[in-house]
Amino acid sequence: MLVSEVNNLTNDISVLVEKYGNGRQALIPVLQEIQNRYGHISDVAQQEIARLLDIHPVEVYGVTTFYHFFNAKQRAKYNIRLCKTISCDLANKDGIARTLERELGIKFGEITNDERFSLEYVSCLGMCDQGPAMLVNNEVYAKLTPHKVVEILDELKVR
Amino acid sequence: MPILNKAIVFDKENFGDGLKKALQMTPDDILLTVKNSILKGRGGAGFPAGVKWLAAASTPSDKKYVVCNADEGEPGTFKDRVLLTEFTEQVYNGMIICGYSIGAQYGFVYLRGEYSYMREQMEKTLESMRNSNRLGKNILGSGFDFDIEIRLGSGAYVCGEESALIESLEGLRGEPRNRPPYPVDRGYLGYPTVVNNVETLATVPIIINKGVEWFTSIGTEKSKGTKVISVSGDVEFPGVYEIPYGITISEVLDMVGAKDVKAVQVGGASGVCIPEEDLTRNISFEDVPTGGSIIVFNHSRDMLKILKNFMEFFTEESCGQCTPCRIGNKKLLDGINLIEEGKCSVQYLRELISLGETMQIASKCGLGQSSPNSFITIMTHFGDEILAKY
Q1: Of B117, B156, B265, which is closest to A67 when you measure between CB atoms?
Q2: Is the C-alpha dihedral spanning A10, A11, A12, A14 positive or negative?
Q3: Omega into B180 within 30° of 0, i.e. cis?
Q4: What is the ipTM of this complex?
């Protein structure tokens, strides 16, 4: 990382610590905002958060790795998370998974070369009445069909 | 999308102004009302709300907290999503009433991360309540102060367990605590805390408005009122329905347009699998309880595949803190893989069922105690079919 990037990151974290307070309870809201803004929580970010919240970096690492929605590694601009739990599974999530892999040319757990798309599975999204469902970052898409998935991807590609 | 059938308790005509009415009562009267209504927790565990509130009220402390558990993560459950969208203010009113009766001034809504897109609308409702003096300082001139903050989860099923949820609110890994002490004695930051499900809280202002007698006239002897359920799977009309306790599963199936039913999973992945011949059993705390999830399977479904999906879910969502749950779920999943490969003897299958029974007793929290339910019930009812096929 460039020094200027680290400075920006530290600056962002300080603003968040100011907003949420420097108690331990601020940790998860701070991590959520950093995750949303940068798409991941890097080692440097974890260390800076630990320093500014005055807790041990291991504590931050422990929390970051516990929750499914925090990643320590960079994700794509659009992180696609397909629900794999039972109702979406019954509604043929496998067909949607195949479509996503085919259209993007990557497997689940991978990221496209241009870093625009990554594919992951996720546990129940609570859209069981409208499955199959997926999240693109924090936005939810339901009642998916292979054609609808292609339309969504096309729209994201030009966004 | 609202409740699909004719609502019973959650009919807007019943709402009135439960909050205003409650704030004119004494805290003790509210505690008594909630206790007498025999309102049981709607998240799945079914602990009486009145008992919980009384315990928190009787613990002396200068600070107390109310937490609305909106971390609905049980596979097949989405009724809180609908309640939080359609009846947001009722949920908040329930939290304020709880705060008033136990002496708390602050509440959290712990909203699951998967629902973060709902947050903006929920914040707007809080703002408009503050603007109309239904939240904040001196609510409706009663002299009672209460405010609510929305906190997001970050994708961890186990945080639906109340003590894990509190750990998460405190900025820790969502690992359940030893109990006792219960959260009503020592909860968020060590202060007495009531954690209630969205539906439980939303029901309270309606009970206050319509009275205990009206509420207890609905349901069965030990399960008063109604249950909001989420129906999915092989049905014509999936969605959210409100049913009186005591209704049979087959009546529910008629309502949702389910045909050719092979089995029904009641209570989600951690619930039980009810085969065709037992569909006359009823939904209640006495018979088959549910936190809201009803998943229907037709005859084309392979029960082992369904079970595998459940066990993959649990191996991923176990927090890993206690051994029966961390290793047990993995062993059950390995067993399913062995069955698929045609390598699981009946003798070993019996051992796995016995392992499941051990997990039910030895696990630290509700996750590990209930995760073997589907393994045991599916193997009991469909063991022959599965062993004949693989």
Answers
A1: B156
A2: positive
A3: yes
A4: 0.95
CB contact under 8 A, B72 and A87: no
- The mean predicted confidence, pLDDT, of chain B is 96
Parallel, antiparallel, or unpaired: how do β-strands B106-111 and B226-233 relate? unpaired
Q: What is the pLDDT of residue B8?
A: 95
Q: Sign (positive/negative) of CA torsion B280, B283, B288, B291?
A: positive
On chain B, the residues whose CB falls within 8 A of the CB of A70 are 154
Residue B313: both structure tokens together: 């879910």
Nearest-by-Cβ selection for B156 from A66, A85, A124: A66
Joined tokens for residue A47: 């260390």
Q: Do B169 and A129 touch (CB under 8 A)?
A: no
- Reference A1, options A33, A36, A35, A47; nearest CA is A47
For residue A3, give how far its alpha carbon lies from the nearest alpha carbon of chain B (Å): 29
Q: Which two tokens stand for residue B281?
A: 């059993």
| pLDDT tens, position by position, B316-371 | 999 999 999 999 999 999 999 999 999 999 999 999 999 999 999 999 999 999 99
Separation between Cα atoms, residue B126 and residue B121, nearest integer Å: 9
Note whether B175 and B164 are within 8 A (CB). yes
- The one-letter code for the residue type at B269 is A
- Do residues A120 and A158 touch, judged by C-beta distance below 8 A? no
Residue B138 identity: N
User: Would you give the DSSP letter of residue B68?
Assistant: E
Cα angle for residues B156, B159, B163 (degrees, 5° grid): 155
Closest CA to B40 of B283, B306, B317: B283
Check if the beta carbon of residue B98 is closer than 8 Å to that of residue B196: yes
Residue-level pLDDT, tens digit, chain A, 159 residues: 788 888 899 999 999 999 999 899 999 999 999 999 999 999 999 999 999 999 999 999 999 999 999 999 888 999 999 999 999 999 999 999 999 999 999 999 999 999 999 999 999 999 999 999 999 998 999 999 999 999 999 999 998
